[in-house]
Amino acid sequence: MSPRKSVAEAATTRARIIERALTLAATDGLDGLTIGHLASDLGMSKAGVVGQFGSKELLQLAALDAAVERFTRRVPARVLGADPGLKRLSAAFGEWIDYMAGGEGHGGCFLTSVATEFDARPGPIRDKVLAALASWSTYVSTEVRTAVTAGQLPPDTDVEQVVFELNGIALAADQAIQLHHDPMAPDRARRAIARLLDAAPRDTSSAQKR
Questions:
Q1: Do the Cβ atoms of 142 and 155 come closer than 8 Å?
Q2: What is the CA radius of gyration of the chain?
Q3: Which pLDDT tens digit goes with each residue over 32-53?
Q4: Spatial separation of the C-alpha atoms in residues 142 and 85, rounded to whole Å
Q5: What does the alpha-carbon distance between residue 151 and residue 128 come to, in Å, rounded to a whole number?
Q6: CA 77 – CA 92 distance, rounded (Å)
Q7: What's the predicted TM-score (pTM) here?
Q8: Helix, strand, coil: what percent of the chain each, to 5?
Q9: Taking the C-alpha atoms of 107, 75, 198 and 148 in order, what is their torsion angle to the nearest 10 degrees?
Q10: Staple 85 to which of 45, 125, 130, 147, CB 3.0 to 4.6 Å?
């Protein structure tokens, strides 16, 4: 076997393991993902799975990296052509909702599920989830600020409050889709986002101080 073919086959095997890990973790949780279960499910030996990553934690981190990359391709990358500001924000959250409701997201939002699972457990996995969510919030706040600068939102809009509420709507949609299996959840979330962006809250702190 040539070295090039060996590397290609190893990459294919690694991708296959990660894909199956994402599917299993969507139902069992990332911490519930075991090398033994994964190996059995894939028809591989434990050594074959461990040899690709080195440890369970490194496998979990690789699965998280794959989930972040998939989310980036599915949501921000798809709306690059939309006008910056409100149109891009609306399109991005629409893509996120579609992603949560569709099978390609492994059911709901994987990162949101992992954030809940590891929110009180310090370590590399929690750190990686925090970094991914912080990156998303920065993306959203940038678009909100662009909307303010463009006059699409009032100049005294409380940007961080808008970001907080937009993300809150998405989290509520994820729970309604995953836990309650509410078929109306995606539509309700879109309507809530449209209403919020149409009448974004303003910062009243200066008025309250007077």
A1: no
A2: 20
A3: 988 998 999 999 999 999 899 9
A4: 8
A5: 35
A6: 9
A7: 0.86
A8: 75, 0, 25
A9: 140
A10: 147
